## 1
Amino acid sequence: MIINNFLIRYCTENARVYRILSALALLFIVFWLNSCSDFTEIDTPVSQLNTAAVFEEKNTAYSAMANVFAQMRDNGMLTGKTTGIQKEMGLYADELTWYGNSAQSSANFFTNTLIPTHPTLATWWNNSYSQIYAANAVIEGVAASTKLLQADKEQLTGEAKFARAFLHFYVLQLWGNVPYITGTDYTYNSMVKRLPTAEVYAKIIEDLESAIKLLPEEYISQTRVRPNSYVAQALLARVYLYAGMWPEAANSASAVLNKTDIYTWVTELNAVFLKGSSATIWQYAPRTPTRNTDEGTTYIFNGGPPNSVALTNSLVNAFEANDQRKAKWIRSISKGSITWYHAYKYKKTGSNSPQVEFSIVLRLAEMYLIRSEARARQGELSNAKDDLNLIRNTAGLGNTSAVTQDEILAAILHERQVELFSEFGHRFFDLRRFDALDRTLSGVKADWNNTDNLLPLPQTELNLNPNIGPQNPGY
Amino acid sequence: MKNISLNKGIRAMLYSLIIGLFLTPLLVMARIPLPKSISQQQNITGTVRDSQGVLPGVTVSIQGKSIGTITDYQGKYSITATATDVLVFSFVGYSTLNIPIAGRTVVSLQLQEDATNLQEVKVNAGYYSVKESERTGSISRITSKDIETQPVTNVLAAMQGRMAGVNITQQTGTGGGGFNIQIRGQNSVRRGGNSPLYIIDGVPYSSEEIGNGMSMSVMSMNTNPLNNINPIDIESLEVLKDADATAIYGSRGANGVVLITTKKGKKGKTRFSASVAQGTGSVPHFMKMMNTEQYLAMRAEAFANDGITEYPESAYDINGTWDQTRSTNWQKELMGGTSKITNINGSISGGSEETQFMLSGTYGKETTVLPGDFGYNRANVRSSINHASADQRFKISFTGGYGIQNNDQPSTDLTTEAWRLAPNAPALYDAEGNLNWENNTFENPLRYLKGLSKSKTHDLVANTALSYNLLENIEIKSSFGYTDLNHHESSTFPSTMYNPSLGIGSETSRIFYTDTKRNSWIIEPQLNWKPTLGVVKTELLIGSAFQSQNNTSLSVQSSGFSSNSMIYNPAAATNTSILGFDESVYKYQSFFGRANFNLKERYIINLTGRRDGSSRFGAGKRFGWFGAVGAAWLFSREKLLQDNTVLSFGKLRASYGTTGNDQIGNYQFLNTYTPSNANYDGVMGLVPSRLYNSSFGWETNKKLEVAIETGFLKDRIFLTAAWYRNRSSDQLVGIPLPGTAGFTEIQSNLNASVENRGVELTLHTLNVKTTDFNWSTTINFAASKNKLRSFPDLESSTYSNSYVIGQPLNIVKVYHYTGIDPETGIYNFEDVNGDGILTEPEDKQIVKDLNPAYFGGIQNTVRFQRWQFDFLFSFVKQQNYNVPRTLGVAGTMNNQSVAIVDRWQSPGDVASSQLYTSGANGTAENALYQYAASDAGITDASFIKLKNVSISYEFSERWLKNVNCKATVEGQNVFTITGYKGADPEFAGYGFLPPLRIITVGLQFNF
């Protein structure tokens, strides 16, 4: 423009030149505009990374996968925070009593009065599928990557498939038939249908078998926070057990139990939940290098009355006399004549340093219990009792007195209650597997009814996806 | 707030216009050597005034001769004439006077404002200006005259109550705090998408919030950069409202446009002006709280109700630990101080025919009403230079302003604390003058003052415009603008905020800080052509704009210091975490045009259009067309009405068009990962930023307006009535998706529609007009209705509990309060779905509209000789939260409003408040929270406020030779008439210092 001005001034007095120049100036503006049509193109900001670029570099690709585990740890159903299934499904079954405000959302779990608009349902559902989306994005990103090494591709794909299977497994447990999402195309994913339970199990098993092949035998981290093939194997054992595939469940559990150069049984109960425990198969890495577990924060209270949850009397009374787990994994708090109990597997609350405990997701005791049950179901009663007794002996108890298959199975259900209490809602799922929900909870929970074995689908999901219905029975 | 150099806004504006438009030929002629002396030539001098004081810029010429001059800044002129000549005094907006010299050498006089001629005022419409009478769009305007009477530091405060349809609310009384503005209601479903566009001297100024809620914790909202604009520098401020006025700003015009024009230098001898004002600010009204007697009675009754006979150990107020005869009004004690306000302005201006300049500086200081040494300081410097070539064809102008603000406040607002404290709580200081913790029973409120919220802002806005007249009616022009903002803010929470006996050390001390840098440049080449096509006067404009804005911000939390004295040194912290980091680029490109056809100054059509491209959209969606058509018919100029003695002016105007909105933040269309700030095994996570969708585009806003403007009795009564309807669609919000999609929403254009419709009335009357006494009144009134017309899948979206189709956007859904249960004495609510329990959202089915039903202002200006008296009442009809009734559970160790004295005591009682409880009655406690979230928790908060009052006296120039001197007393928020029982009905902020009553006394000098 300035140059134009000078030109124009230079040519003063000449009207014809004026007119030509004014037309030129006009053209100039229009031309400038058109020539700059890419002016509004901008680069990717430094605070974000192009999706394709994330998977062209090892560090960023691992960061993408690390975030899936971090999200599982922090948000949704699998977190140890107060919002996860560990507490809520404990309340829903007969492990925990609610002492908080009756208007808080946890109260509905305790009283089994969930409705489809309950906010926690949407939170669990949405977070689960969001984490599944992120895992799928890793699988797709890694597949399209040209620069990642094969070993890294296998580790990441294996981890992502493991995470995808893990998340779907719990979505299946909570809601029954659910969709199995294996891609990131939202136009497809927002119109998906629910699959029959057996098909979901088949897909979970397919993913875990693939993960077992892809993942290395050794942990890539010292603290067992990123899965190796045995982590996938251990989850697979749980999946087979839940799916009623007994020989496979026993074999998968054995595969982990036989890996004795990595996993060794810990007999000191107070050492089971320490971060370096050799009986740990998989644990979450804490949020900061100084933190302890969210479970600790969720369960521990130091004065009465508790303001959130305490263990139910039925659980506390379920321990046999001399069970060391009652002494070491439970703590009592008294005020006046009243005594409350809280889970004390983790001794420290999250913010209480130094760091000694990580949140354990899969541990050896469950493998013994899985194998025990799978063997019992197949009639291998003696072998079943061996595994069960190992657990009992560690807790300071004598061998089981159960003899018949039914007695052994009942003993296993009981053992699972006192061994796995307050961990990942095991109790509720076990009761359902043993078809014991109604008889166990009807007397204890006033509002329990037989359709409460599954949670209602979130109302938002029913509203937004016409293919997802119908709602689970009873809601 | 005194002005720097110009105390007559409109006149000063006209002054510059006259120089630019009318006087040039006169002045050129004036430089032609006068014809050789004729008989009895003498120098005639004098001063021209108007009803409000001296009048600069008046053209003084001699009838029948081509000789003329203009009055200078003090209204003085000097002209050579013969004793028999007739002097002609003319000035836009005033009746021309012809005065025979009749042998005198001094001819001083007063010009009378001619209301009709106010229609000649040129109004800034952004890329062009338009004569008031020929305006086709809806533009509200205030000038320095209105701004200077107000002791305010924020430009939005200066607009409050003065413009129809412009709703402004103050968010806090803390110095440097923010304001909210809504021009004709909320258009976007996104709460953050409703800001107007601000243009300062042609440069777009981003009003996007800076900083972070945690790093300026004392404020109710994030820092608003508009505080950087110094109101005293403003010459005029226009608000563009309808499609005709805003469509030339295309995509950014949806929420209206605020045009700010700063003061410029004037030709003539160098002028100095200075003003000093000193004043005070205080909280105008406190909530009425219980006294000690009422409070302790409440506590005793609460424990009795709960069946507690032995007061708990922690009930210090009533168990005998604290003196039960003490009585402190904590609001007075903690917020009842007086803030000292000082404002100093100075300016130098002047210039020659070709070059004019102005330099000005302002310093302002405002201390706090809290007990402590806090304050808000600001300094601004501004310069402007205009230059024109001798032939007036080439012009260059430069304006630049630089502002510095320093704000030091405590990091916690004490308002809630002042309400909460028991009236018999102990003294703040012990005998040694240290903070009194009363043997560890008293959480001393002054502990909060140990933490500080500090901010420092440096801001530069500069603009250069070059223009050249190619031909007489063709001008090419380009403006270049630059803005640069640097902002640092921090809030500290040191361990000294806690009782020392708790043994909390500096390892717990925390600081939050945010650094923001923002700069932008803009280039706007334009071409103006004003041909006359036959009988049609035509104005054509085409132009283009290129803008780029860079933004960087970093928010950090640091904690764990070896010593509190190291709290501002992040290197001394044991833990540092990044709360947020953003570095973004926003680019913007446009092509715009205007065609205005004016037939016989009676029929006017105005076409405007713009094609905009924004980097906030993906390829293929970046560009959008916007445009409007406006038309005006000046029916009073038709033959039938031309000589009507009653109707002096009549205009019907209408406009329709589309504008847009791209306020969605940058990079929403990219397929990226973002750091999640989640650590896993030493690896920082990366999370998919969003579902990838690059196919969304502009939000569109269709505006329709019809208005009539009528003047009666020579425009002594002037009424403007406008009806408008704005509809926003293609809303840029997340479209709800089922969870299985991985994200619950995707950024897209949602087919939701929001409508704002309303009427706006402005009535200006000149009630009395004599030489010594003038009285004029301006009333503005706006009533509007906001409505969400449609919103697909609202029930499943994140907005399901905040919006209802068919209702306004600014609503709350609440329980229905049904009274106090006469048996239990507890608040009862309607169980809408009849399931026996009160649940959210099922039972929250009552909709309460928090938009004002109507609002406006009544402004009066009365002049009597040298006295001038201005006052503005603003009024709002609205509902707001019933703060006094929801201050917490009555009976616990928190003081309550006196309204709570009327409570239920025994079965059968009829009362307005439920029974007291010490906290042991969980049902009552729960009921109080439900009450706050019920229709009883919202109450009428309509008010009439004496927003502004100003009295000034202009001293005779005989007292101070050649110095024009004026003394003023000004007040802001003087008093409020309202039935609302809270601190201030204007403001929705809970627990923040209410807007202060400010009174200042000032002197200003011009010489």
## 2
Amino acid sequence: MGPKSNPMSLVKNQNFVLLLIFVALNVYFATTTQSYFQLGNYFNMLTQNAALLLTAAAATLLMKTGNFDLSTTANLAFSGVLYALLASWGLPLTLAAVITLCAGICFGAINGLLVTRYDISPFIATLGMMCIGGGAALLICGGQSVRTGLPDNFSSLMQTDIFGLPTPIVISFVGITVFWVAANYSLIGKYAMAIGSNKNAAALAGINVDRVVMGLFVLVAIMASLAGIMTASRIGSGDPRVAEFFFMDVIVAIMLGGTPLTGGRGTVIGTVIAAMIVIVIGNGLNMLGILVFWQTVIKGVILIMAVTINEKFTFSRLSEKMSAPGFSQ
Amino acid sequence: MNGQDENIIEIRGIEKSFPGVKALKGVSFGVKRGTVHCIVGENGAGKSTFIKILTGAQPATRGEIKLGGKPFSPHHVSDAIHQGISCLYQELNIVDELTVEENISLGQEKHKFLFPQKADNLEKAGAILADFDSTVSLGDRVGSLSVAQKQIVEITRALVAECSVLVMDEPTAALSLGETTKIMQVIERLREAGMTIIFISHKLSEIFEIGDTVTVLRDGEMVGTQSLEGMSQPDLVRMMLGKVVAEEYIPSTGARDQAVLEARGVSTRKLKDVNFDLMKGEILGFYGLLGAGKTEVAEVLFGHEYRGEIKRDGRVLRFRTERDALRAGFALVPEERREEGIFGLLSVMRNIPLMNLKTVMRRGLVSGKAERDLADKYIDLLQIATSGRNHPVALLSGGNQQKVVIAKCLNRDADIILMDEPTRGVDIGAKQEIHNIIRDLANKGKSVIVFSSELQEITGLCDRMVLMYDGMVRETLRNGDELSTDYILEVVAGKEA
């Protein structure tokens, strides 16, 4: 019975607003810089950030349950170094990738186990794993990035094309589509939403809350691990210090995209558009010749703004509810 | 139909122990098929524990339940649902973000590779829903519905799951009058359709309106199961409260002729036109059953919003926050001691000055000596049994924790002290000591308001008592020899004064 055909509802639609911001940013950078508005630049942006888009889309499902993962950076670094290390030992790349993904799953399994079985808050559990994983990445390579002894085709994953599109873009596009379908049309998405919205009700309805949360932690870990493999092949080495702010970018994208830390709502599309906004700002500022350090500052500002706006949104909806019949006398 | 009189549920000797407490001490009764069976009891009677056992949320320690003649021991809520017992809990268990349809099928969806299939019972759900409330449709987002409508969605979900017994735990607690009527009608129709309903409510008028049979629990024990036909409300209250042993009442020594607080026409969502006076040096008691409005009066006096007028020494008060109330000379000993009263990890010494740190500040800093002196003073004054002033408050007994809370309020030097359930969870000796402390305060010219659900406490302690029923003040009595506990019971059970 909501105001479905109200023209105001389009403005209230967070994804639409995000899309407007995205378009506005593109217009701005296209007019102020010369090299921004070119197909090559867009391919470049997407290739560089395919790993981010993929992980953020998957992590949106996790955040919808009211959980989150800070250890994605560590997982990415660890997986990247391990993949390069295995490759340098002469293992076929496919086998190296499979072993790396299996190791990456451990991050999710441990996070999930700590959160579901031992009732540790996701903040502590994944912060702990962030330190452990980050340290492990440095340990297995002795603090030096793995760049010698790599096979010639080490970077081919990221440099080949499929139907004229760079492979990483195709991978992230397929991944995003899968997670979008999962979030909107499958039981996983529904259950994630139900758990974040009212965990008790979900459990009483017979949903195995622990299994869903556990599964989503593992899913995010697989994606972060894949992100590590993709990053290693993109830069052509296993660098334990690469993408320090990856977990931060993932969370900024999800929260700006309309999923609160407490879960219960949010969309994969929102996350993807928000991630694109962050990516475009980074790329555009580079083009404008603004110091890279500013990007970090700006990300922080965006995160705080996103949370503030989200809180306001939740609050206004809550007060709407309070004035609904049944709450008043 | 054969077996109209057959018991659908047979409960035999159910016991439930928690570490240190026995919540249920052998409950046995039968529930007849197609009736509304009410369960009543005051706080701590064991109602919620019993519901949890019946619906599979917790296992029983001992005893057995038979459902339709077969042994029934659910290990999980979904076990109970599959066997035909569904429950509407006090808090709504429904997901606001999903639609009505999605909520009805939540957790029970038919799916292919995790993609939900169109449910085959959709038509049935739609028909049931339309039957109860034609304004709700399956596609509505649940967040946009009213509380009563959400309950109807929950009931529909239970019916779609083909339950034969519906447990309703205080379904009307959050409802307005109009919505309550609506839910009562729904229950009526469910009974006509042959459904068995277990109905828990503290609103006795509802019990008499809708119920066929009532089981009364008190302190985890079953007092009795009776037909509600021919039973009167005071009879039921007497069963709920048990025998009241009058405690010796000693009047406060003060003159008690000067009003320090006057409340006129105080109303909130729950309270209706509450009037009372509080005299200097008096202990005023508020008594009523659960939900009569005692807590709300305490809240109003401590900063919650209200309509009407409250005067302190002739000046109109307007509190916006708890701080305002404190500044006006009020102090509250809250009902939930652990959550609102004590700072459990802090020591006795650190707890006592917290409502008035000025008393331990010397030249802008907290002085250890002042803290120690203050703690020693109150430990001595209130006879707080602690191994030392550095003992964490969480490790004290309930009675001594309460004394620490009272010490905190005394150190505030408030003139009006509100005490919500001052002796709940306190052993008998400490109870007497706390009563003596309260009496002492009044004799020293403080005014004390005691909110209690224990009649014995009210009649033994208070100089005057305000009897509440359904948000209204029914009568104000002066304590003395001619006081009749039977009469008080009748008033709080709803008899017109």
